[in-house]
Amino acid sequence: MAAMRNEAGPWVTVVGSTMIDQIAYAARMPERGETVVGDHFAQGFGGKGANQAVMARLMGAEVAMVNAVGDDSYGKETIENFASFGIDTSYVRREPGASGVAPIWVEPDGSNRIIVIPGANDGLTPEHGAAAVAAQDRVDAVVGQFEIGQAVTTAAFAAARERRAVTVLNPAPAAPVSAELAAVTDWLIPNEHEFAIIAAATGLSDDVQDPGALAAFAKGLGVRLLVTLGERGAAIVGKDGEVQRVATPTVEAVDTTGAGDAFVGAFVFGLASGWTEAAAARLGCAIAADSVLRPGTQRSFPDAARCREIIDAVASES
């Protein structure tokens, strides 16, 4: 049975990955065959799905997580972490074997390199994803990523469409989007690197600076498109094909790990709360910019009080 949640909403269901982030900070990255001495190490909870769920919850959404974790200590700790935020874990399965992990290298300028090892995330099935969405008392938005199989997200999004919930896909790590998944996706939110990879794979222009290329991409996949551009903000393709640019606050980044997930969680919260898409994108940019001021992934996210300050500030400007 699902945990009781506040009817005020919005209600967001995240069908996606959980990982244990293992973060190494170093003055420079090693070359092939080389060993370097790092500055320091941190371990925390991550995975794109988990990060987006936590961010949406910190924003004030009622959140359910749909996932599979291992029967190891990491799996137990992951479920406890969700519970600490008040996230519904009724649909998190325990699978034999190891939970997912993500070794991360962070350079002095805050940029990062990540290797994702899915582990138990691969145990999530389309049947489980669809059933979890169908079982919700209420669902306003369903979010997915590419750290689990596209078939799982497709089934969950199809169930969401039946309930008239908005579906938001963050195609990361980058891969071509299946026709079946595109058909049940309302919003596609890649970053500029993911956009370039997916566009090139589908024979479209990968020039993120060209409004025509962005519009052609959205039309070709039949989705609403929002591309995150790091310190340059975001680009939204309107229903009419016009491209709107949204600026982000200027900050000095310490660690960009998880910033994209912070954006998605905040954007979905805004969209599911009835904000305009442009206002929801501005909210995502503001939250992501705040997150890069601190190291780590989920622990870099602004707390609930700071999120409310940002929500109020963006709302007053919209």
Can you offer a commentary on this structure?
The protein has 318 residues and is of the alpha/beta class. Helices cover 37% and strands 22% of the residues. The protein is built from ten helices and 13 strands. The protein has helices at residues 48-59, 73-85, 126-135, 150-162, 179-183, 192-201, 211-221, 259-272, 277-291, 304-317; strands at residues 11-15, 19-25, 40-46, 62-70, 88-95, 101-106, 112-114, 141-145, 166-170, 187-188, 224-228, 234-237, 243-246. A nine-stranded mixed beta sheet has the order 5-4-1-8-9-10-11-12-13, with helices on both faces. Strands 3-2-6-7 form a four-stranded mixed beta sheet. β4 (62-70), α2 (73-85) and β5 form a beta-alpha-beta unit. α1 (48-59) crosses α8. Mean pLDDT is 93; it is low at 1-5.
Question: What key phrases describe this protein's structure?
Answer:
318 residues, alpha/beta, nine-stranded mixed β-sheet, 10 helices, 37% helix
Task: Offer a concise description of the structure.
The protein is of the alpha/beta class and 318 residues long. It has helices at 48-59, 73-85, 126-135, 150-162, 179-183, 192-201, 211-221, 259-272, 277-291, 304-317; strands at residues 11-15, 19-25, 40-46, 62-70, 88-95, 101-106, 112-114, 141-145, 166-170, 187-188, 224-228, 234-237, 243-246. The protein has ten helices and 13 strands.
Question: Layout of SSEs?
Answer:
Blueprint (H helix, E strand, L loop, with lengths): L10 E5 L3 E7 L14 E7 L1 H12 L2 E9 L2 H13 L2 E8 L5 E6 L5 E3 L11 H10 L5 E5 L4 H13 L3 E5 L8 H5 L3 E2 L3 H10 L9 H11 L2 E5 L5 E4 L5 E4 L12 H14 L4 H15 L12 H14 L1
Parallel strand pairs: 1-4, 1-8, 2-6, 4-5, 8-9, 9-10, 10-11
Antiparallel strand pairs: 2-3, 6-7, 11-12, 12-13
Helix pairs in contact: 1-8, 3-4, 8-9, 9-10
